[in-house]
Every structure is written in C-alpha cells, then in structure tokens.
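re: ur question from earlier - yeah i can do the single chain one, its not a big deal. heres the input i used so u can compare w yours
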Amino acid sequence: MNGQGIGDVITWIVLLTLFAYLNREFEIWRMISEIETYIAAFKSIREKAIQCTLNSFKVISLRNEQKVNLKIIEERLRKLIEITFIQPTDLDPYGIVGKLKHLVRTTDKTLELEVKTLIPFANKAEIENMKNLIDATQAINEIYKTVDHIYRIGRKFKSLWILMQLSALLPFITENIKAYESSLEAFSNGYPVGDSVGPIVAAKFIKRYGKDVKVKDVEEDTIMAEIPYKDRTIIVIKAKGPAGVVGRLDDAVEYALSIYKNIKMIITVDAANKLESEESGSISDGFGVAIGGMGIEKFNIEKLATLHRIPLYAVLI
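and the output i got, formated as tokens:
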C-alpha cells in the first residue's frame, strides 16, 4: 500500500468518525428540542392550574360576598404546591400501612386547615373542592419538575440514553398530566369525576331500595345503610361527601364486621382504567378490592376479609 492509499484510509476513518459524532450530536439536539416542547407545555399547564385555583378562591369569596387578598393567596398557594409528602421508612415493612395512613390523614387535615385559613367563610363543599384543586396542582407541579430535572441531567451530560428514555415516556406522561388538567374544571365547579361512580351506585341503590331506611354516620365522613333486598340484607357503605371526600371506608367495614356477624361477601364498586381497545363505561366483574388511592384502605379491607374468611368481589366500570 503506497502513501496515497494510507492517506485515503485515514481520511475515510476521520470522515466516518466525524459523521458518527455529528449524527449523535444532531440526534441529541433533535431530542432536546422535542423534550423542550413538552416541558413548555407542562409548564403552561402548571400555570393554568395555579390560575384556575386562584380564580376559584376569587369566585368563592364573591359568592360569599367577602374580600380576599389574591396576592397573599397566590404566595401561599405556590408554597402549598411545593409541599413534599415523605414516605414512611420501609426498612421494617411491618406496620408501614398504619404509618402511611397516619401521614395521609395528617396531610389531609393540614391542607384543610390551610384552606380554611385562606377562606374561613367557605362551606365544607367549597373547602373540599379547593383541596382537590390544590392536590391536582401539586401533582401537575411534581410531574413538571420531575420531567424538567431528568431533561436537565440528560442535557448537562449530553446523555443520549437518558434523553431517549425520557422521550419515549413523554407521550404517556402527557396523557397523565392532561388527565389532571381536565380535572381542574370538574374540581373548580364541583362536578363528579370518574371515581365518583362508586358513591353514585351506592347512593342510587339506597334511594331505590331503602327509601324508609335510616342512613347513619359510622366513621368520619362515612355513612352506612342497612337495605333489605330479595330476602337478603345489604349493608351499603359510602363516603358521605361532598366533593372529593373519600371517607374512611376501611374503618367503616371494620365497624360493620363488628356489628354483623354473618357477612357472606364484600362487593366494591369503582371506576377502572380502560385500555385503548376497550369501550369507556363498559362494566366488568373482578375479584378483590376495587379502591384507588395509595392502597391503605385496600390493604385494610383485604386484611379484614382474610381474617373473617369473606370473599371479595368487585364491579369495575
């Protein structure tokens, strides 16, 4: 091989190396541009959520013919959405559900006090709606900050793999954040959302078959009714409401089991996630406890059912 041939080989190696480098840089630039578009949209949704919450504070104050300082409320709101829920330690998993339940109740009570401090003239339904709005805004803010953090790390180190993974997940994250965005109008106006299907079924059952039945409070924000139905006795338990109040269903089930000694089954009704091929609103049966959330009530009801050997059935809508 003469000198010219060696020079050609070296030239080709340099060109191929340069091409590979430029191709990688171009791919990183393309992904950064794509991710930045998503992040800008997420930030816009976050600001929309904050503004929607502020407007709801204003509407409630006007409805009650009261004046509020929106600037002070906005400052406090921006601090509230940054509140961090610290998961209990799981070094020893035993008893973690009880600790988690305590933390959730503490968080809920604290948020309720915060809302009452900002609008002390609001009624219970308005307070619950504002709590739901703040929760949704917190979730949107957390998603935005997490995505932005991963993006900044990937860009800082020019990591193609971090950016690729984030880019692949963004369509699913977008579906999630848009679901929160669509809930803003529902929460601000007190409209029922998907998970209200369980309480609606329970309420309609009580109304249809238990017209003369007395509904009683059994736990905080939780009611129970004893309904005669086709030679059976149905114990209906539901959250009392209003708005997004979920009650203490696990405590209510424990109370019912202490009163009624011959319970044959526990049936839960709840909304369910649908796959893209499934029709929205379709009904299916299941086994287990159909309750959303962090799993606290689900765990406790499963524990009670196992202890008393009671079958668990579910209706999923």
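The two ends are 76 Å apart (CA to CA). not sure if urs matches, ping me
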